[in-house]
Specification:
129 residues, 7 helices, transmembrane, 2 domains, mainly alpha
Length: 129
Amino acid sequence: MVLKIILELTSILVYNDYEEEIPEKDTIVKIMVIACAGLLLSFASLLLCMKIEYIGKFTSTETSSQSTQDYFTRHKDDKQRFRVFAVHEVKWKGAIGGEVKAWVNERLPAWVESRPEWLDKQKVTTIPK
C-alpha cells in the first residue's frame, strides 16, 4: 500500500513537471521503478504465501454466489454443506434453494437423533424456514 502511494505521488510530480521543487526526473524515474519492483515483489510474495488450492479462486472470475453454490453441490459431507447458511440467502436461494431445502428435510431427522457435534444451537438458528 505504501509503495502504491509513493508510486502515485512520484508519477504526479513527473506529470506536472515541476522544475524547481522536485529532484531531477532521473531520480524520480528510479523511485518509480523501485516502487514498481516493490509492488511486484509484494504481489509475488502474496501468491507464494497463499495455500495452493486458493490461488485459482484468487485469479478466478467466479462470483461469490457461484462459489457458494459450487461449494454446496461439490461437497457431500453435512458439516461442509451446512456452511451454505453462513452466507446470505441471496447468494444461493435462487439457484439451489430447492436442493438445499430437500437436503435439510432429508437430513434433519438424522441430525435430531444423532446430535452431531458440529451442529450447535447457534447453527440451528441459521437454517431458514
